[in-house]
Amino acid sequence: MNKKNYLWPLITMGSLAAGIVLGGFFTKNGAPFSVKDDKGRVKLNKLIDLIEQEYVDNVNTDSIIDMTVNNILAQLDPHSIYISKSEFDEVQNVMKGSFVGIGINYHIMNDTLAVVKPLPGGPSDKAGLKAGDRILYAEKVQLFNQGLSNDSIINLLKGNAGSKALLKVYRKSTNKFFDVEITRGEVPLKSVDVAIKVNDHTGYIKINRFAETTYTEFKAGLESLLKQGIDELVLDLRENGGGYMEPAIQIADDFLKGNEVIVKTVNKKGNVKITKASNKGLFTDKKLYVLINENSASASEIIAGAVQDNDRGTIVGRRSYGKGLVQREMYLGDGSAVRLTTARYYTPSGRSIQKPYNDGLDEYNSDLSNRFKSGELYSKDSIHLADSLKFKTTAGRTVYGGGGIVPDVFIPLKNKHGEDAIQLLMKTSLVSYYVFEEIESERAYLQRLTPKQLADKIYKDPKYFNELKAHLKASGLTFNLDRHKPNIMFYLVAEYMHQLYDDNAYYNWILQQDPMIQKISTLK
Fold first, then answer.
1. Which of 124, 191, 296, 298 is catalytic?
2. Is there a contact between 244 and 95 (Cβ–Cβ < 8 Å)?
């Protein structure tokens, strides 16, 4: 099995962002700053100079400094982080909501770069690249049979906006080789995956992170849904680890009435800033549901807390991550930066939802596994928060601080006969890569099918299940897949739709069996 190269910086920078942004909540206005020159700092500088001048071996002192900065920040809190110069541009692109490149999703298939699909409206799409195309050369450099890493491929394909990328491509569907010149440009990185109707009266918006463009994307989606006549909205913040606070506040503002509190922040000096809703909300008087889970953090929790404390809507899902610290991004002058915790935030009722971190980073990071062990992800009765952390919503309902937002309606993970494990398996690169290979064998035919026709074909033809089962067995998976066939088939169709169609088709399919969406349909 070749390594999957899918959705990386030329495509999206999601994996890096997930590590840095999970639990992230910060202001976007970075700035240089001045520091004192005291004895401790002089000692550190002198030590670095001595190592450079006198140490017996050559040492990369930049790496020592990076390590020192990371160790210092680790003594503060889990969310004060250092962003090295090598990481900074990629992280900034994720949060800016775009990057400069050619705009493709790709696999390395049999040691050849294969286009999964060009990003809609991106440079490759405009230049005529299609799903299934093989990129053989970039700037006369051979890409196939070279064992190139992701970084090497990215370095060959990236460049400045307006620059040209000359590619040699093989199109399997026509068995032809051709050259194509692609003008590199801004490729959008969507933070709002979809804004669709799940039934005649219910809209659904999925936000994957809070970037500079998030509110613009959200507003466009909400306005489109309102024109379609929705009278209730589901806002999906599951797996959303946070990001910039400004778009989260803007979105909460659209749900709340004038003068209702959105969030409070308190800094080191005890200065309190209270942010209240304007009187310009787009969606203040219709039913609202907010979906959260154990990986919904910071900015996601700001929205969920504001909605819950103001009794504006219903929070559905599982207890959120529990991150109540605000970071400010500060540049260090050499291309690197720190995100330093400069304040704590509180929900409108006054609760801090920051989970404890006094027992160290390892214990803090093991919180999710502890939730699994305690059974909390499968039973609401396993959630235990101190009575001393009780607060009241505007309507007098009891809510809790001290470790995330506890939903109003609890939805457990699927645990029947290991169905949760099957769901995770079907979303891995092992399955995604396999589906890409299968699509390649009949792409021309499959592309002519509607989503419904595709689903019918996969369900009715036993080869799809049997061949996937053989593939998974050959990959070392030994558990009984037959007992999970309905679940496997559902997510197999989902992966085909993900690769063949747009996000709307994928979400229209996947939401049919979403337990949280199903539960909402009963809350009338």
1. 298
2. yes
Q: What is the pLDDT of residues 429-448, one digit of tens each?
A: 899 989 999 999 899 899 99
Angle between helices 85-96 and 14-21 (to 10 degrees): 100
Range in 16-25, 194-203, 394-403 with the lowest mean pLDDT: 16-25
Please say if 37 is a catalytic residue. Answer: no
Long-range residue pairs from 504-510, CB within 8 A, at least 24 positions apart, any chain = 504/194, 504/196, 505/451, 507/193, 507/194, 507/196, 507/204, 507/206, 508/196, 508/198, 508/451, 509/451, 509/455
- Whether the pLDDT of residue 72 is over 80: the answer is yes
Question: CA-to-CA distance for 463 and 467, rounded, in angstroms?
Answer: 6
Q: Which of 4, 190, 264, 323 is catalytic?
A: 323
What's the rounded mean pLDDT across residues 498-514? 95
Rounded CA separation 426/364 (Å): 29
Please report the pLDDT score of residue 21 as a whole number: 43
> What Cα–Cα distance (Å) separates residue 409 from each residue in 210, 314, 412?
24, 7, 10
Catalytic residue among 309, 320, 336, 349: 309
Mention every residue, 6+ apart, whose C-beta is less than 8 A from residue 385: 400, 401, 402, 403, 406
Give residue 511's identity as a one-letter amino acid code. Answer: L
Query: What is the tens place of the pLDDT at every residue in 2-20?
Result: 434 333 333 333 333 333 3
The answer, yes or no, to whether residue 400 has pLDDT greater than 70, is yes
Are 282 and 257 a contacting pair, CB within 8 Å?
Answer: no
Concatenated DSSP letters of 311-336: T-SEEEES------EEEEEEE-SSS-
Q: Contact 114/106 with Cβ under 8 angstroms?
A: yes
- Tell me, yes or no, if 352 is annotated catalytic: no
pLDDT digits (tens, 9 = 90+) for 87-123: 887 788 778 877 888 999 888 877 888 999 898 888 9
What the block records as the tokens of 93 is 């692109």
Return the beta strands (E) in 131-280 as ranges.
Answer: 134-138, 141-142, 164-171, 176-183, 185-188, 192-197, 202-207, 232-236, 242-244, 261-267, 272-276
Question: How far apart (Å, rounded) are the C-alpha atoms in residues 53 and 41?
Answer: 19
Q: What's the angle, vertex CA 189, arms to CA 183 and CA 192, rounded to 5?
A: 145
User: Is 296 one of the annotated active-site residues of the chain?
Assistant: no
Hey, what domains does the chain have and what are their CATH numbers?
Answer: 1-23+79-189 (2.30.42.10), 192-413 (3.90.226.10), 417-520 (no CATH)
Task: Report the C-alpha gap between 93 and 26 in whole angstroms.
Answer: 15
Q: pTM value?
A: 0.88
Q: How far apart are CA 385 and CA 204, in angstroms?
A: 31
